[in-house]
Amino acid sequence: MVLAAGLGTRLRPLTNDRPKALVEVAGRTLLEITLARLRAFGVREVIVNVHHFADLVIAYLKAHENFGMRIEVSREDLLLDTGGGLKKVGWFFLEDSASADEPFLLHNVDVISTVDFMKMVQAHKANQALATLAVRKRESSRQLLFDEQLQLCGRRAGRDKEPEIARPAPRLEPLAFSGIHIISPRLFPLMKEEGIFSIIDSYLRLAASGEKIAAFRADQYYWRDLGKPADLQQAAQDLEQKVVLQ
Q: Has this prediction a pTM greater than 0.90?
């Protein structure tokens, strides 16, 4: 699933007349870059959630013949956040009983990276995790907290805020989430939250109940969040210099 429903407020004025997914970096839209990365790892079926300028995304996919993939669209009349957006499309991952146990990838449209998705899947399966999150040691006002076994234990939502601990541990390491998840479909019946909610809320509740929400250290890979115009400019330079897989 590609999360592409956000308003892209930090990218204004670029998002005044288009959704964040159709903002371009070096002549390519963020959505195209994300889909190309997924396709390179063998992904052939994708669902994209849309809200802001939804019809433009739908028309764009149609004009490009879905980039040779099966692409479904989940239209959100009301923004559901990451958890609500994923829960709404549970049917997509459960419709084929033969692959109902296979993990799937959840990817923010405004993230580009060279993270090896296959290594993430391998780590996810080896850990028998419910979800595996790509994380990095970097400055961020929002940090997830992991124990020495790289299991999710809590979060810190702001630099001056007290941490929220779901599962106590002697030593907690703060790591920044990179917007890429590998998830087992058995998450869906465990998502008790309703309406608008962050998937991190679900992860913390489930970690507290003993479910394994694991970290995948992605420090060695290129990664950039494209939330602001300056980030787009730097990413365009990186693409031109072949720093990023194309």
A: yes
C-alpha span between 218 and 221 (Å, rounded): 6
pLDDT of 133 above 90? yes
Integer Cα distance of 219 and 152 in angstroms: 17
Paired with 75 in beta bridges are: 50
Angle at alpha carbon of residue 148, lines to 147 and 149, rounded to 5° = 90
Residue 99, pLDDT score: 67
What's the pLDDT at 246? 43
Give the whole-angstrom CA distance, residue 207 versus residue 237. 39
Q: For 46-93, how does the pLDDT look when each residue is reduced to its tens digit (9 = 90+)?
A: 999 999 899 999 999 999 999 999 999 999 999 999 999 999 999 999
**Closest by alpha carbon to 92, among 129, 56, 47, 131?**
47
Query: In angstroms, rounded to a whole number, what is the distance separating the alpha carbons of residues 191 and 80?
Result: 14
Q: 241: Cβ–Cβ under 8 A, 6 or more apart, which residues? A: none
Rounded Cα distance, 119 and 221, in Å: 12
Q: What is the pLDDT of residue 152?
A: 97
Give the Cα separation of 219 and 214 in Å (integer): 15
Assess contact for 152 and 166: CB atoms under 8 A: yes
